Amino acid sequence: MTTPALLPLSGRRIPTLSPGASSFPHHRATLRLSEKFILLLILSAFITLCFGAFFFLPDNSKHKRFDFGLEDVLIPHIESEKEARHSSRQVIHEESLRDKIRADHERALQEAKEKLRKSKEELKAEIQTEKTKVVEDLKKKDGPKPLPPVPMPKLVGVNDGDPGDPDTKEKRDKIREMMKHAWDSYRQYGWGHNELKPIAKKGHSTNIFGNSQMGATIVDALDTLYIMGLHDEFKDGQEWIEQNLDFSVNAEVSVFEVNIRFIGGLLAAYYLSGQEVFKVKAVQLAEKLLPAFNTPTGIPWAMVNLKSGVGRNWGWASAGSSILAEFGTLHMEFVHLTYLTGNPAYYQKVMHIRKLLAKMDRPNGLYPNYLNPRTGRWGQHHTSVGGLGDSFYEYLLKAWLMSDKTDTEARKTYDDAIEAIERHLIRKSNGGLTFIGEWKNGHLERKMGHLTCFAGGMFALGADGSPDDKAGHYLQLGAEIAHTCHESYDRTVCCFKCYK
Known about the structure:
Layout: E1 5-9, E2 12-16, H1 25-56, H2 71-116, H3 120-140, H4 166-189, E3 195-197, E4 202-204, H5 216-227, H6 231-244, E5 252-254, H7 255-273, H8 276-289, E6 303-305, E7 311-312, E8 322-323, H9 324-327, H10 331-341, H11 345-359, E9 370-371, E10 382-383, H12 390-402, H13 408-424, E11 426-428, E12 434-436, E13 438-440, E14 443-445, H14 454-463, H15 468-490
Helix pairs in contact: 5-6, 5-7, 7-8, 8-10, 10-11, 12-13, 14-15
InterPro entries: 6hp_glycosidase-like_sf, Glyco_hydro_47, Glycosyl_Hydrolase_47, Seven-hairpin_glycosidases
Pathway: Protein modification; protein glycosylation
Coiled coil: 98-133
């Protein structure tokens, strides 16, 4: 009897007959059908399992889903779509922001246009109100009051005919003749230049006016021409100023010289003639000088560039100092500028100088010629009523007179200064001549320069307003100083023959 062999079939052990063993046909057929059925069943289950796993199993973040390697392709595409959507939102936001800014600008522009729709009459009324307010504020402050209205002067010799005294008429005519000769020579040889070299017969422009052709002689002579009745010459000067006088030049000028010659000359011409061009030019120039006051102390620089506004002092001045006669000879013109314009800046600048000087200690009551604009300290202790100091004292007295004698602060400052000068500087020579010396390095130098000669007139002018017991004394002192100056000329060898 043969033993059946076991063969593997789909994990089951199925008995088979060895070769040569007998079997029945129906039994073998049944067996083949069963095997096919089982194979189909197993294959169906396997396919079902695979497809079910592929389509129905949930995506687990911990286990990557089987995706045939498409993940590396799809994810960057998805991310780029996200970025595109974000970028689109950002663009929309920026456009919205720009629209908002544009709307704000248009609204602001519209508001500005509304403000500018005011009529010229309204604007002029507002400006006049502000000017009136400034003048009222100045009246309330201590110190000099604003100037009273200045009437057009009625000039002797211009409107009132010739003087009755023949000798006076002869002298006056000779002086006018000399003035016309000088003007005609300048007109012929130096027109438009600052000065005329009479021997060389050519124009000259000095460094105090930045070597620019600013017509200093024209401006400086206007009031004299008008007073002398030389109206044709005055008109020529006015036309040159209207057409040529320009302060926008790149030139470094002396603040002091430009003030007394240009601003002073233009204001005098305006008050005499009433021509508006002179006032306009004076204000334009004054604005160009204001940057010179931009120092730590408010004491102005000696020079300023009319274009850049940069200032500095003379290289020869003691320790970089400003000069007493220069920063102290601005008061009259700048106060008049405030009166004419209603702008308090000019008045405030010069009043600040006066207040600063009043607070400072003065050796022997004297004002040294040098003051450092950075530190506010005196430089070299050198006092002179001549060069470097002269017109400071003159302007104190004239400020009092100009204010209709209401600027008592200026008058007291003048009186105190003159008292110190008389005590420490005025002496008599061995020949009996009264002179004003100079205080330098702790001692008196017994000399008097040419520029000191103005003091004779100043003492005489200041006698009015002095105490009764001193009025005559100052008149006499003024006469003595004038006599000394006359003698200095009379005793000097004349050199005019050298130029013949």
